[in-house]
């Protein structure tokens, strides 16, 4: 395994802002923590990733690979409401359980997730009457508190705050606090955003913004079965916004309060659940690899049994596709979870709604004398590959970000041509001598051919090297230049972003040249 290359997150964020990928939401009003807006190129990049997921999971599931039953994978799409009946969230367990215990600092008024707070304590175990120093990893408090702790104790160790009995918290100095003992006991904090449906806005009108798209799928399972010809095993796929009032939104878009999920609930017979779980784990890793997250920065991590969510306890388990983000390095952060949810959700909704959600499987059960089957009724088990679209865009941007001081573009994005928002750019070498007329015509031709796949740009301003650099910076894979030979020879040069090599190509071959490369990406 090669050593991880650490990339500078501040420079990735600066490029994302400068080139119109991601802006802070409500920036002119000082911003709104945990909310982000996608600029022109970011919106297109995000759409390309969303489309890739839709194409590879809904329109052509798993690229035509056969499932463990030897059949092509069946998938149907769905698009459900952000606001559902509040009882959906009671049944799913989100009203009672979707909360993180928090600790507040009475002195600084800061609020922390209890499980994120760690403490620098003396390695010897003897604090000699001095306070121990609390911090949250990957924040400025970490280095500050470490320095103070080393000054106080020499050698220090890191322990979770939860390992210190609450009776001793009077000796814990919170991050940025002046006096020890300011942390409150942990309190639960529900992550769902509340709103009111209707004009009266009483307690009876409370509704929630969905914290995941998954529940919309479970509660429409029966309608999908009754109104389409799908048969178990099959999946329902949905992309859409989810909202979580995260206590500590951070690391750019990684932990946001409004984000988009790409979720599949794959329904199968309980006996087949283990095989489908293994199948989806492998498929989802392959998918992210195919988009360019192919090296050591991607891993599949199987959850330990004590990490499993309540619904996964009885099942085959949960595994995360994880990416080594610059802010998690050398560790990894979750990009997608693949969970065996057993029949937890259907059973809960069946119980709370009192509607029978069992599936009648005509192909199972005892063999009848006429050669048919008696059939079997059951609540299908679910394998759930649940990916974050915004985290996906962030991982793709981080992976693509490349520094090379020897190039005219010392920073550039090695985006896969499939995802790149700008597929090609056309330039006249100089803005005279008949070149702009040819490049404008070629640009119009290429736009006509490629607008469904993404943007095709035309740029006449500044020296050619600067224009190449501008396109490299936004990850445009091909730059096409009309030069002094173009009129006479009916040819152009095409420059490859990653190698910076140019190739002379006949003008009437440019569409085919780009089609071949974009198709194989
Ligand atoms: N239905 C299962 C579910 O929602 P999850 O692990 O909580 O599972 C799935 O979320 C994915 O959604 C995560 O792997 C992550 O990519 C994304 N996600 C979750 N919380 C997020 C947040 N606050 N900001 C951005 N993405 C988030």
Quote the beta fraction: 25-35%
Helix content: 25-40%
What are the segments in which pLDDT stays under 50 over at least 5 consecutive residues? Answer: none
Terminal-residue CA separation: 26 Å
What best-fitting shape do the alpha-carbon axes yield? globular
Rounded mean pLDDT is 94
Query: Which molecules are bound besides the chains?
Result: glycyl-adenosine-5'-phosphate
Oligomer: single chain
The tally of beta strands, per DSSP, is: 27
Rg: 27 Å
- Main beta sheet: 7 strands, mixed
Secondary structural class: alpha+beta
Helix count from the secondary structure assignment: 14
Description:
This protein is α+β, with helices and mostly antiparallel strands. Helices cover 29% and strands 26% of the residues. Helix 2 (40-59) packs across helix 10 (389-400) and helix 3 crosses helix 9. The chain is globular and about 85 Å long. Glycyl-adenosine-5'-phosphate (GAP) is lined by residues 212, 214, 244, 246, 255-256, 259, 261, 263, 334-337, 384, 386-388, 390-391.
Q: Would you summarize the structure shown here?
A:
The protein is of the alpha+beta class and 521 residues long. The strands form 8 sheets. The chain has a 7-stranded mixed beta sheet. It has a 5-stranded mixed beta sheet with strand order 24-23-25-26-27, sandwiched between helices. It has a 4-stranded mixed beta sheet with strand order 8-6-7-9, covered by helices on one side. It binds glycyl-adenosine-5'-phosphate.
